[in-house]
Structures are given as C-alpha cells and as structure tokens.
Amino acid sequence: MKNLIGTAVLTALLATSAFAEGVVHKVAIHVDENDPQVMNMALNNVANVNSYYESQGDTVIIELVAYGPGLKMYIPGQSPVADRISTMSLEMENLTFAACENTLNGMIKKAGHDITLMEEATIVPSGVVRLIELQEQDYAYVRP
Hints:
The chain is an alpha/beta fold. It has one domain: Hypothetical Protein Ychn, Chain: A. Helix content is 49%, strand content 20%. Helix 3 (36-55) links the parallel strand 1 and strand 2 (59-66). The longest helix has 20 residues, at 36-55. The chain is globular.
C-alpha cells in the first residue's frame, strides 16, 4: 500500500510541467521611494534573484512595482536608473515593471501636463492593489 501511494505521488509529480522543467519562483519587488539607493537596491535584488535561480536550473518570474515617489524611477530624464531598467528589460524576459496609475494621475495633476513613462513600464490601476494581487498569486514579496 505504501509503495502504491508513493508511486501515485511520483506519477502525479512527473505529470506536472513544474516538476519536469524545474521549480518556478515568483517575486514581487516594491519601490515607493524616490531614492536612487533604494531603486538601485531593488534592481540589484532583481539581478541577484534572477542569477541565483538560473544557477539552480529554476525559473523565476519577477515584477517590480513602483508607486508614490518611487514612480520617478520610470520617468525618462528623471530616473537615476533608466539605463539599468532598459538594459535589464532587454536581458531578462522574465522581468516586468509595473507603474501605479493613481500615482501617475496625481503627478500629472500636480505638474499640469502629461508625464510619459519609460516604454518598459506597464501601467496598473493601483500599485498597492497590484502588490496584493501578486501576493494572492503566491508571489514572494520583497521591499529593499
């Protein structure tokens, strides 16, 4: 009976693509400060997490969510990390950048003109809600 259960569990595991192709990790990284040191630390976390899991033969999906003052990291001409974002976006297909629409709308209202974000950034309705959604999808949460 014990061997039958063990065989059934092993068969079920082998049938899943996650087991056959390695483990899939999901990570949400949060930036809400207009601080170059925090932005660089977040991007360092992205690079280090990606490198570690690649070296293990695993897959990692990473989403960096910026809102509040942290949204400045996605504004061309104001972002101290624009070059890193562009480079990392080209090198890592498993990395996405989410930008809070609530914050963007507040910045536009305050500035009195449109504000364009880097093409790498995808606008989400709310940065906080996006982080909640990702955690509900079993993403690990990191705040540098």
